[in-house]
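In this supplementary section we document a worked example of the pipeline. Step one takes a protein sequence of length 151 as its only input; no multiple sequence alignment statistics are reported here. Step two produces a three-dimensional model, which step three serialises into structure tokens for compact storage. The input and output of this example are shown verbatim.
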Amino acid sequence: MLWRAIFAFLALPGIVAFAVPLVLARSQLNPAQVWPIGLIPLIFGIILLLYCVREFYVAGRGTLAPWSPPRHLVTTGPYRYSRNPMYIGAGLSLAGAALFYESVPLLVYGVIFLLASHLFVLSYEEPTLRRIFGSEYEAYCHRVRRWWPRV
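The serialised model returned by step three reads:
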């Protein structure tokens, strides 16, 4: 199962949050013209993504991929505060890369990614989780917000 988790990470957030941004920024890869402050959200986003993948593997007994989903509803780690921390981590990574490379195309891609993620969550993920986990997921939705933690 570990190899499935690694493959899922490389195939999904790996492409969305790392490969595509590198392709979009490749013409701007000039070490003399970067804004290092972008490393802060980039690194935080990567850490959050890895923490989410770990929770899917350890607590959920599965992966983040639809072809090998977790067997248990994951409500631990960052999922205690947001129902979608993986998308937040990818968004932070994209924002950090856009800042680091001072790239408008990356910023636009990040905004499109976040909008598409929101629509995907509403149209596919939430109905699927309600069907699979039923009242357990409903109770989780009442405790934890979709995107931003309760303050």
